[in-house]
Amino acid sequence: MAIMDISAIRKRVYLILEPTYKGDRISYWFDVFITAVILLSISVMVLSSVSSLSARYSLLFKIVFLFTTLVFSIEYPLRLWSCTSNPSYSHPVRGRLAWALTPFALIDLIVVFPFYLNIFTGINLTGLVVLRVFRIFKLVRYSDSINMIVRVVKAQRDMLITAYLVLFIALISASTLMFQIEQPGQPEVFTSIPATMWWGIVTLTTVGYGDMVPMTAPGKILGGCITLLGIGIFALPAGILASGFTQERERRTNAKKKEQQEHHGEVYLCPHCKAEIRESDLWRKK
């Protein structure tokens, strides 16, 4: 009986911790709470970098930091304990190890790691403060919009890889050519092909910082061609992602229509007025 109760509690905790289990208000309000905590943590991290604010509200920032860290510290072991309710991680040992290596679980661990490293070992690695920025990635779990972006990128990854491969080839080619053309006249600027790749990046992206500028006529011609080429090449990923978003939106719309049809029954077309009539609205003579 006790085992069954523990199993039921574990499953309930799992459903609450997972992003909004349909029809579960506790799960919904937990999502709202944890999202607010994440945003609060990120806000404090950003504001504490302002010297005047950090000096004035130092104590408040520390309290908020400890509170958010405590929330995340409780959340992680609860997720680790309840993850076996998911059939993919049902084994009590291997399942939990597999879950702990998932991207979201690693993010959950990384955001609290520097704090406990300092407490238990006395090691205060200032550089690890940057790991606090990983807290923003926790929003991915609770944002349907961000999840849609992730799904689109995954769905279009092959085409995106191809587009960026073309971009990389263009970068190497442009940087090599520009180095060969400009290095004799500006050896202190175009010192090597890797150094010239900085010029290639800012030119292909049409940013143009102006810290590396070709002075020869062939170099200027090449620079102009690379700039025009960069406009077209950088439009490729944008077009691929736009197409992916359109497909994802159509998929979600079709899925929603299908769900509505399953809920309300089949839809019939009236042979006279061509109006759509749901199965639940039909009157049938028995």
Structure overview:
This protein has helices at 2-17, 25-47, 51-56, 58-82, 94-100, 103-110, 113-121, 139-142, 144-155, 157-182, 193-204, 217-264, and strands at residues 267-269, 276-278. The model has no long low-confidence stretch (mean pLDDT 82). The protein contains twelve helices and two strands, in the order H-H-H-H-H-H-H-H-H-H-H-H-E-E. A hairpin with a 6-residue loop joins strand 1 and strand 2 (276-278). It has two domains: 2-142, Voltage-gated potassium channels. Chain C (Four Helix Bundle (Hemerythrin (Met), subunit A), Up-down Bundle); 157-269, Helix Hairpins (Orthogonal Bundle). It starts with a helix and ends in an 8-residue tail after the last strand. By secondary structure, the protein is an all-alpha fold. Helix 1 packs across helix 4, helix 2 (25-47) runs antiparallel to helix 4 and helix 10 (157-182) packs across helix 11 (193-204). The protein has a two-stranded antiparallel sheet with strand order 1-2.
Quickly describe the structure.
By secondary structure, the chain is mainly alpha-helical. 69% of the residues lie in helices and 2% in strands.
Task: List the keywords.
about 290 residues; mainly alpha; Helix Hairpins; two-stranded antiparallel sheet; 2 strands; about 70% helix
Sequence-ordered SSE layout with sheet pairings:
Elements: H1 2-17, H2 25-47, H3 51-56, H4 58-82, H5 94-100, H6 103-110, H7 113-121, H8 139-142, H9 144-155, H10 157-182, H11 193-204, H12 217-264, E1 267-269, E2 276-278
Antiparallel strand pairs: 1-2
